[in-house]
Amino acid sequence: MTSGPEIPELDSSRPSIARVYDWWLGGKDNFAADRAVAARMAKINPALVGMVRDNRAFVRAAVARAASAGIGQFLDLGSGLPARPSVHEAARAVIPDARVCYVDLDQVAAVHARALLASGPGLAAAEADLTRPGEVLAHPDVLRVIDPHRPACVILAAVLHFLDTASAREVVAGYASRVVPGSWLVVSVGHYEDLALHEKMCAAFPSQPYYNHGAADFTAWLEGLELVPPGISEAKRWILGAGSVEPAGQPGYTLCAVAVKP
Ligand SMILES: C[S@@+](CC[C@H](N)C(=O)[O-])C[C@H]1O[C@@H](n2cnc3c(N)ncnc32)[C@H](O)[C@@H]1O
Questions:
Q1: How far, in Å, is the centroid of ligand 1 from the Cα of 68?
Q2: Protein residue whose Cα sits closest to atom 3 of ligand 1
Q3: Could you tell me the distance, in angstroms and rounded to a whole number, from the CA of residue 46 to the centre of ligand 1?
Q4: Domain 17-260 adopts which CATH fold?
Q5: What is the pLDDT of residues 2-25, one digit of tens each?
Q6: Potential cystine with 5: which of 112, 129, 217, 223 (Cβ 3.0-4.6 Å)?
C-alpha cells in the first residue's frame, strides 16, 4: 500500500473530464479549455449530451431501485461535480436518512465535496483513486458514513470507460469481493456502435483515455453477481424495465447494468 492517491494539480489550461462532463450537463464549474473540448466533442457526436443525460437518469433510477430494496448507504466512485438531483437526493427520496460518500480525484469536485460536508449529517466526500478499492474502502472519510459490515450500493457510473477492460474488471472485482453479500453494484459506460465515431471522440480529447466497452465486457466484469432486471441494457430501456442492448439503433449510447452480490 502506498502513501495515498496522487491528486493532480489544478490546471485550468488543461481540460479535465469532471469539468468537461459538467459542461455537457449544463453546469458552470468549467474553464475555457474544458468548454472547448466539450463543445468539440458534442459537435462530433450530436447525441452526446443525450447520452450523458441518459446516464444521469440511469444513476438516479438505479439508486432509487437499490434504496427501495432497503439499501441505505451509497458509495459514488468518480462522482464528478454536483448534478441535480444528486445521488443523495435520489436515495433520500426513498430512505430519508440514507448515507452517501462521494469519491473523486478532481480538484473542483473536491471543493464542492467539502462544501457538501457542511450541508448535513450522513454525507461524506473522499479525495481518492477509485482504482484502489482497498484504499478507498478503508479511507477515513468513507468510513465516516459507510458501515463496511452492512450492504452498500457501489456506483461506478461513466468511469469504467477510462480503463481497459482487464483493469475495469479488476476494479469491479476489487469492490465486489470486499463488500458484504446483499450489496449492489451500479455500472455504466458510454458505448459506441460506430467505431469511427468513437475514434473521432478519442482524438478530440487525447489526454483522456476512452475505451469502447460492450455487453461482453459487462458480462465478464459482473461474473458471479446477480443481474437486476432488465440486465445489461441501453440506459433508457433499463429505466423503462424492458432492457435490451440490440438493436439500440444509435451510433452511441449509454450502456448500463445493476447487479447484486449473492
Ligand atoms: C464522466 S464523469 C462521471 C460522473 C458521475 N459518475 C456520473 O455518472 O454522472 C467521471 C468522473 O470520474 C472521475 N475520475 C476519473 N478517474 C478517477 C479515478 N481514478 N479516481 C477517482 N475519480 C476518478 C473524474 O474526475 C470525473 O469526475
A1: 25
A2: 158
A3: 22
A4: Rossmann fold (3.40.50)
A5: 344 566 677 888 999 999 999 999
A6: 129
